[in-house]
Amino acid sequence: STFDKHHDVFETLGIQKTNNKGVFDGEWSGSGPIVPSINPVNNQVIAEVVTGTTADLDRALDRVAEAQKIWVEMPIPKRGHVLLAMRDALVKNLQPLGKLVALEMGKILPEGVGEVQEYIDILEYALGLSRMMQGAIIPSERPGHIMLETWNPLGTVGVISAFNFPVAVYGWNSALALVTGNGVLWKPSPTTPLCALAITRILEQTLRQHNLPPALCSLVTGGTDVGVSLTADKRTHVLSFTGSTQVGREVGKVVQGRFGKSILELGGNNAIVVMDDCDIDLAARAILFAAVGTAGQRCTTTRRLIVHESVYDSLIERLIKAYGQVKVGDPLDDGVLCGPLHTEAAVSTYKQVLDSVIKQGGEVLCGGQVLTEGEFEHGNFVVPTLTKVRPDMDIIKNEAFVPILHTMTFKTLDEAIAINNGVAQGLSSSIFTTNPANMFKWIGPKGSDCGIINVNIPTNGAEIGGAFGGEKETGGGRESGSDSWKQYCRRGTCTINYSGALPLAQGINFG
Ligand code: NAD
Fold it and tell me: Helix %, strand %, coil % for the chain, to 5?
């Protein structure tokens, strides 16, 4: 079994084959259904987790709030030291954690390790922030007055995460939530509970070593019921949701209904525009990574390729050749670039999308097969695929979380931008060009309407220093770098009068 084969990984990370407790609120427990974690390479059970219930969540929310009261007393640079210790613990466990991500989610090992590295990076960023979270001092129109802004924690940040980044999404949120003085409650994807257990255990150990209440980083694994309760609960001051647009739309309404704050990181439908003046080799290499990496299961995966008609044939020829060399297989094997899809349901989605492409008048240029023979027999393996479509086809309007890249042509940059912007989602976008005029148009007011607007790099693979997130049906949230930390805070506008008199604003004379 997967568990026996990778026993060292599970032992290092404190995971058993059965009876893993899936709730942490200072102590480990769990009174919900027993849920298996499945290896997408062979659809066999890796290990079982006793998940949480809404009653477990109710208790955990109180425990987080108690822990936060202690945490918030700690000077911010001291909090930074605790985050540094968390970072060191992750560095020590980088390889086993990366392997666990590969085993449970199905992404290739370098991407699994890379995902844990993102968590390490954001903890370093948060350490820096712990000395730099500055507020503004604002000129006052009144004599003897000063105005300033304060940024204080909101309390508890609830994190609901998707299956495709079972570590990094929580990492981004927890690092910033903690440094700003909040407690965190995590509801991970029901299909990646083991990653959540392993991470939470590492945080628990670090908090205990610092004599801090470990409930500060609480965990309730479980399904929709736990997610729904966490969303509706007033004790969740910020709800950071990463997942599909369909679920995010409901989550956003519920949080708004109770005047909570939400950060929504929803689906993408990302495009690359290829201009006739670009470096075609560079573009082809970027497109391969952007469309095939993580087997097409990144929110930033390139799904639409918009190519100038004069370079379409030569680019497609290169891509077909490159796609032909992509090794599909076990994500832990050397040289494999494309692992399995996370679930069997995604294989059905893959087939449905290809059927629709044909029905709507498109064609499959390469790939298009589900792999079922030999080592692929029991897993969720498909061949990365290129199609040729027209920009007005319905099939390219929705995000399908599979490695299918729809290609199409354009004549002018304005037309390419209109195609890029012509979908409901607005996460990531890239242009390949060597012409500065094209670059500046692309990033300007008449350019890409996405949250991530790249030039000569893929749509995926963001660095943690920038704010990450998207517009329109991607939800509008921003996480990670820049000033994203402010979303985990309440802003206070403070006016201090040291004049001894009472001059009023706008020169008003009252009585
Ligand atoms: P999903 O929407 O099915 O599930 C996400 C999470 O929501 C899970 O933890 C799930 O248990 C929980 N959930 C389900 N119903 C809920 C409800 N009614 N209330 C509260 N929580 C509920 O998404 P998924 O299939 O796990 O992930 C894939 C999707 O996530 C894709 O659309 C992808 O683009 C998106 N995603 C976006 C980003 C981003 O930053 N924009 C990053 C990663 C993934």
Answer: 40, 20, 35
Residue 137 to residue 146: CA distance in whole angstroms: 8
The ipTM assigned to this model is: 0.98
Average pLDDT, the chain: 98
The yes-or-no answer on residue 141 being catalytic is no
Per-residue confidence (pLDDT) for residue 511, from 0 to 100: 87
Q: How far is the CA of 295 from the centre of ligand 1 (A)?
A: 17
Residue among 48, 111, 115, 265 flagged as catalytic: 265
Is 484's C-beta closer than 6 angstroms to any atom of ligand 1?
no
pLDDT digits (tens, 9 = 90+) for 317-349: 999 999 999 999 999 999 999 999 999 999 999
Q: What is the mean pLDDT of residues 366-372?
A: 98
Is 118 near ligand 1, meaning CB less than 6 Å away? no
- Contact (CB, 8 A) for 185 and 60: yes
DSSP 92-156: HTHHHHHHHHHHHH---HHHHHHHHHHHHHHHHHHHHHTTT-PPPEE--SSTTEEEEEEEEE-SE
Distance (angstroms) between ligand 1 centre and the Cα of 436 equals 37
